[in-house]
Amino acid sequence: MMKFTKTKLSLALIATSVISAPFAMADGASFNSGVKKALADTKVNVSLRARYEGVDEDGVNDASDKDATALTLKSRITLKTGAFKNWSLGLEVDNVTAIVDDYNDLTFDYSGNDSVVADPEVTDVNQAYLQYNTGKVKVTAGRQRILHNNQRFIGGVGWRQNEQTYDGYRIQYAASDALSLDYSYIHNANRIFADDKKGDDLSGAFHFANAGYKINKSHKVSAFAYVLDFDTAHAMSSNTYGALYNGKFGAINVNLSAATQSDAGDNAVSYDASYYNAEIGTKLGNVTILGGLEVLGSDDGKAAFSTPFATLHKFQGFSDKFLGTGSSTGMKNGVEDAYITVKTKLGGVKLTATFHDLASNEGDIDYGTELDLVAAYKFQNNFNVLVKFASYSSDDLSTDTSKLWVQVATKF
């Protein structure tokens, strides 16, 4: 405890010296008072997340069957200074350590035949930003977390041990209690791999725009535009425009989303594709039931609608068989996902079951089905236990795969 207290004090003193530099010529008394308040409001948090992941993946024959065993620990320290004249700093550093590393972490130095667990060992600056916040206007510059709506288009891939964050500039404006505007210019995406790993950062000129409007407490809409021009990953360059609706009609919840996408930048494939998602759900006693259909359309098999910056693990099954649908992947025929989710809570344990029926948007290909099960329990306020299981049954795509996760997380 003494070591942690000293660390917190040291970080706070460093933050104070940095935040005070731009205002060194300010009035002495006012300056000192502002610094003291910024110091008092500075917060340092530590979080730990240990996770077991086991993968059993069939091959095309018995000899090519693969599996993996991973036991990893993510340690995170987060510093957020108090505000001085509306200015503040944020710093977050992550370390991922593999205690058991019998898996393919997608690094260049990996050699073997294990299944993929995309949690390479890394120490990484997850966030480092300067922020100006008046309450109505918030401007953030530097490496930062950006999560739009349900993260179907822009997310942080928070499920993986090394999070995805973005380098650039973001402006958020609360125009009124109902209307909010959000624009980011991003020049680099720090993905879930370390810089020296396979599939590392993606650079380019990326524009993220989102406008949200609350019609009333039961209905809200959002409009979004994502203009992506990649420096080297040209096959992912695209322009996407769409809208999202969330509504409640008595006991019925409705979520609707639609978007169009076309090639951009130096993308060698000329295409136009559509996206839509429709969900309807209700609560019956202690049970919530939700059904939906999500479609990532295809343009005659040339390319399919893609979302390269999404939190993809949230969608189309936890087995992660459908992480890419663009022109550079093997699923250019798109994906149609019909799913149903049942949620309940027993004795403090949250239980969720989801069934997916997956097929192509073009070509009449039956991809297969997947069953996902989750049990989550929170105790002593800051400890969370999660057990998750995914079973993908292949038809005309990939091979049968099952995955099991057991996770314990805490924050203080």
Blueprint of the fold:
Layout: H1 2-20, H2 28-41, E1 43-57, E2 66-80, E3 87-102, E4 122-133, E5 137-144, E6 165-174, E7 179-190, E8 202-216, E9 219-230, E10 238-249, E11 252-263, E12 272-284, E13 287-296, E14 335-346, E15 349-359, E16 366-379, E17 383-394, E18 401-411
Antiparallel strand pairs: 1-2, 1-18, 2-3, 3-4, 4-5, 5-6, 6-7, 7-8, 8-9, 9-10, 10-11, 11-12, 12-13, 13-14, 14-15, 15-16, 16-17, 17-18
Helix pairs in contact: 1-2
**Any idea of the CATH topology?**
Porin
Structural class: mainly beta
Number of helices: 2
Helicity level, as a percent range? under 10%
Order of helices and strands: HHEEEEEEEEEEEEEEEEEE
* Main sheet record: 18 strands, antiparallel, barrel
Query: Number of domains in the coordinates?
Result: 1
**What is Rg?**
23 Å
Q: Outline the low-pLDDT stretches.
A: 1-19
Instruction: Please name the fourth-level CATH homologous superfamily.
Output: Porin
β-strand percent reads: over 45%
- The count of DSSP E runs of length 2 or more, i.e. the number of strands, is 18
- Provide the CATH top-level class: Mainly Beta
Oligomerization: single chain
Overall form: globular
Averaging pLDDT over every residue, what do you get? Answer: 91
| CATH architecture group name | Beta Barrel
Distance separating the two termini: 12 Å
